[in-house]
Description:
By secondary structure, this protein is mainly α. It has four helices and no strands.
Amino acid sequence: MINGVNNVTQLNNVQNIRKTDNSARINAESDSISVSKEAVEMAEAYYLDKVAAETPDVRADRIAEVKARIKDPSYLSDAVIQSTAEKFLTSIGL
């Protein structure tokens, strides 16, 4: 019926008033969060793990540089060989 449309309009007015009343009751306090020390540590560990996974194990640029030096006959001398041997033995704890 056509008369029923007017009743719907009145219902909408009541719903709008309720929405306004509810929104006026909201507190104006600010939101806050707290993160535990363990959560911060886990986030840091996750980030470091992600960075480590994305970092290549082999530095191809450094390997190419060393190979080029070794091919140069003037680079290999007794002093270089002795220094390399000492660094190697130190790194393995001898």
